[in-house]
């Protein structure tokens, strides 16, 4: 019985309203549209889009945003009070781990220089370091659509982890962390990446595609694979521009 | 340049393609002097390997002369004569450090495709479909060699191409199959399949001290080759009522101590769906080919070893696993870690322990590739092994 109460307590806490009323309406409207559009496409991508749409509707209806929660952000004011509290459905969260044959120290210092990230993150055009905490990120999107935002480091334990998030006012709200854990034996370092992503209503489709392609989990997995190749061998395996009878 | 390209099921074309260029700092370009058609190329030819694209350059058994090296290649120079192992290894990942080269983590740009099938990615392979990286192969005048600092081995000038070409694949493959058997004095080794890999498994079993070697096939000239060069006892399965019974009789009722399945089966897979479709599509073939493995498991003596160099990729039906368990068999298998064997086998060739060129039956130009694929496929004209010279210059 006690356990159950505890669970309820926790979910009540995590279900706190942290999204403001106008944004909640936007979420519901944009989410519904996206869900309908996604379902109409009858494809994997469509299904994914409709899933995001559903999550947005949920976000609007419940007034709780998981990403905002992660970032410690709330756009809700006391005037929003009195809304129904329903446990929030999941936002977009990706977690991938790759073992890399290098020390945590090597990997930490490589990653800590964020300007290295576009070398293995396919969708990133550039990252410019502004100061010791802040950086400016630019992502490449389909059809010439670009997304840019500023990020700041919010957590850092040398040789263990780096956590960052987009700063307030960014068009693409996202937060990420990378963890470096020594693997067993002489196997190197387990690099774990966790990304959370919550685009504001209206920019969904384009921003989502820009950041993660059609399949965020695949994108992160392949980014990590390229990081592994780069760190272990100094180059990324490719067959670009090689001969074929296709010309 | 001219290159042999895959053009669809049952069709290869020799066509003009652009010359390869250095892309990465560890690359080299090799001018191919001799290349071969491998039995596993026939899996591609027969359309059993998914993720092939029309125009892909074929060939993973090739050697030649280095003509250009990337900025980070310090061990090779233009003019060096090299053989190139078929699996591309980075030399730096944990698997390469364990000398499990064909399981390299870093050389397959399409590792996710293999992951879909095996759960984990494996090394890139020249000219062997996009799931193995999509690398252009060596049945061409020139070929790009990734990680040239790790893979190619230099060849002394006094050894002709034909004696060393098979260090790229089939000789190490046959040798690793025999090595996996952990042959002990007095052992009787049975080898199913007298194709090039089976023949080299026979030869290697001899080199590793097998007292008797029995080779099982139905192609007369192949069996005779094994008998002539490596003193193998031959078992033509078309001439006996029951292969298992014949083997048992030949081994005093004990069964062969070590069994090598050098036949394998057609049919690589990609996604589980694709594999299953192919299984259904090729059901008859599937049963035919898995027959070898079933028979090897059945015939092997109690506590013996079954070694499997023949390629399996998808699912196989009705494998007598209880037999393997009940007799306490050891099973060994996998793509060859060619890089472990190139140097010691080169030494054996130099010493005259083995002359791999004895299996060559057909010598052709690159332009004859379409005809040679057909001949090899149909085992016409007593064809055992085809080599081709891509350079159009003299001879």
Based on secondary structure, the structural category of chain A is alpha+beta
Largest interface: A-B, 27 and 44 residues
Number of H- or I-type helical stretches of chain B: 13
Distance between the termini of chain B: 19 Å
The total of beta strands of chain A comes to 7
Which descriptor suits the 3D outline of chain B? globular
Q: How many H/I helices of chain A?
A: 7
- Helix percent band of chain B: 25-40%
Biggest beta sheet summary of chain B:
7 strands, mixed
H/E topology pattern of chain B: EEEHEEEHHEEEHHEHEHEHEHHEHEHEHE
Provide the low-confidence segments of chain A as ranges.
Answer: 1-16, 69-90
Structural class of chain B: alpha/beta
- Indicate the mean pLDDT of chain B: 92
Rounded radius of gyration of chain B (Å): 20 Å
**Any idea what the shape of chain A is?**
globular
Folded structure, characterized:
The complex is a heterodimer of chains A (247) and B (395). Chain A is an alpha+beta fold and 247 residues long. Chain A has helices at 2-14, 21-41, 44-62, 66-71, 104-112, 204-212, 216-233; strands spanning 92-100, 124-129, 134-140, 146-157, 161-166, 173-182, 189-198. In chain A, strands 1-7-6-5-4-3-2 form a 7-stranded antiparallel beta sheet. In chain A, helix 2 packs antiparallel against helix 3. The longest helix of chain A is centred in the first third of the chain and has 21 residues, at 21-41. Residues 1-16 and 69-90 of chain A have low confidence and may be disordered. Chain B has 395 residues and is an alpha/beta fold. Chain B is 29% helix and 20% strand. Chain B contains 13 helices and 17 strands. Chain B has helices at residues 41-45, 94-97, 111-118, 161-164, 170-179, 196-207, 220-230, 243-250, 272-281, 283-299, 321-326, 342-351, 369-378, and strands at 2-6, 12-16, 28-37, 61-69, 81-84, 87-88, 124-125, 142-145, 153-154, 188-192, 212-217, 233-236, 258-261, 305-308, 330-333, 362-365, 386-389. In chain B, strands 3, 4, 5, 8, 9, 16 and 17 form a 7-stranded mixed beta sheet that branches. Chain B has a 6-stranded parallel beta sheet with strand order 12-11-10-13-14-15, sandwiched between helices. In chain B, helix 5 (170-179) packs across helix 6 and helix 6 (196-207) packs parallel to helix 7 (220-230). The longest helix of chain B is centred in the C-terminal third of the chain and has 17 residues, at 283-299. The model of chain B is unreliable at 267-274 and 283-288 (pLDDT under 50). Chain A binds chain B through residues 99, 101, 186-188, 218, 221-222, 225, 228-229, 232-247, and chain B through 1, 3, 5, 7, 13, 15, 17-21, 23-26, 53-57, 72, 90-94, 97, 105-109, 111-112, 121, 124, 133-136, 140, 144, 146-147.
């Amino acid at each position: 019985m006690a356990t159950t109460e505890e669970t309820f307590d926790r979910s009540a806490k995590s279900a706190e309203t942290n999204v403001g009323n106008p944004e909640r309406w936007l979420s519901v409207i944009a989410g519904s549209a996206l869900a309908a559009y996604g379902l109409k496409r009858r494809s994997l991508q469509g299904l994914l889009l409709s899933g995001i749409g559903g999550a947005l509707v949920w976000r609007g209806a419940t007034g709780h945003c998981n990403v905002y929660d992660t970032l410690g952000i709330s756009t809700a004011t006391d005037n929003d009070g009195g809304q129904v509290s329903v446990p929030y459905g999941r936002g977009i969260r990706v977690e991938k781990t790759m073992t890399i044959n290098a020390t945590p120290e090597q990997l930490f210092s490589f990653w800590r220089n964020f300007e290295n990230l576009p070398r293995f993150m396919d969708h990133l055009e550039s990252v410019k370091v502004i100061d010791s905490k802040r950086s400016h990120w630019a992502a490449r999107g389909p059809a010439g659509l670009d997304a840019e935002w500023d990020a700041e480091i919010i957590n850092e334990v040398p040789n263990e982890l780096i956590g960052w998030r987009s700063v307030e006012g960014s068009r693409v709200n996202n937060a990420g962390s990378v963890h470096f854990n020594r693997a067993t034996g002489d196997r190197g370092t387990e690099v774990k990446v966790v990304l959370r992503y919550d685009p504001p209503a209206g920019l969904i489709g384009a921003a989502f595609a820009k950041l993660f392609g059609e399949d965020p989990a695949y994108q992160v997995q392949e980014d990590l694979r390229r990081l592994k190749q780069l760190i272990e061998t100094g180059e990324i395996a490719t067959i670009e521009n090689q001969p074929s009878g296709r010309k | 340049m001219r290159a042999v390209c895959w053009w669809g099921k049952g069709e290869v074309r020799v066509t003009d393609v652009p010359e390869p260029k250095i892309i990465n700092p560890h690359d080299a370009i090799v001018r191919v002097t001799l290349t071969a058609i491998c039995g596993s190329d026939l899996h591609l030819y027969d359309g059993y390997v998914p993720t092939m694209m029309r125009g892909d350059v074929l060939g993973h058994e090739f050697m030649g002369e280095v003509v250009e090296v990337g900025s980070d290649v310090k061990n090779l120079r233009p003019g060096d004569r090299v053989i190139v192992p078929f699996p591309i290894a980075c030399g730096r990942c944990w698997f390469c450090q364990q000398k499990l080269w064909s399981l390299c983590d870093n050389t397959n740009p399409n590792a996710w495709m293999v992951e879909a099938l095996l759960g984990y990615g494996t090394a890139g392979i020249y000219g062997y479909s996009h799931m193995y990286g999509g690398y252009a192969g060596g049945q061409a005048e020139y070929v790009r060699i990734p990680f040239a600092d790790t893979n190619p081995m230099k060849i002394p000038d006094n050894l002709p191409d034909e004696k060393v070409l098979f260090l790229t694949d089939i000789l190490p493959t046959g040798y690793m199959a025999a090595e996996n058997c952990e042959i002990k004095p007095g052992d009787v080794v049975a080898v199913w399949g007298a194709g090039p890999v089976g023949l080299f498994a026979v030869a290697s079993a001899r080199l590793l001290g097998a007292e008797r070697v029995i080779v099982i096939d139905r192609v007369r000239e192949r069996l005779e080759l094994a008998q002539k060069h490596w003193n193998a006892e031959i078992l033509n399965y078309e001439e006996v009522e029951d292969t298992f019974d014949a083997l048992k009789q030949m081994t005093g009722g004990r069964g062969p101590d070590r069994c090598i399945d050098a036949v394998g089966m057609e049919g690589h897979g990609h996604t589980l769906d694709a594999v299953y479709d192919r299984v259904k599509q090729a059901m008859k073939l599937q049963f035919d080919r898995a027959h070898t493995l079933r028979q090897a498991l059945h015939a092997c003596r109690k506590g013996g070893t079954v070694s499997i160099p023949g390629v399996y990729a998808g699912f196989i039906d009705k494998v007598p696993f209880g037999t393997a368990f009940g007799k306490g068999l050891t099973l060994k298998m996998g793509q060859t870690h060619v890089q472990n064997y190139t140097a010691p086998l080169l030494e054996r060739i130099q010493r005259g322990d083995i002359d791999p060129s004895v299996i060559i039956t057909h010598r052709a130009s690159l332009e004859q590739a379409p005809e040679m694929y057909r001949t090899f496929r149909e085992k016409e004209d007593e064809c055992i092994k085809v080599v081709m010279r891509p350079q159009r210059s003299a001879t």
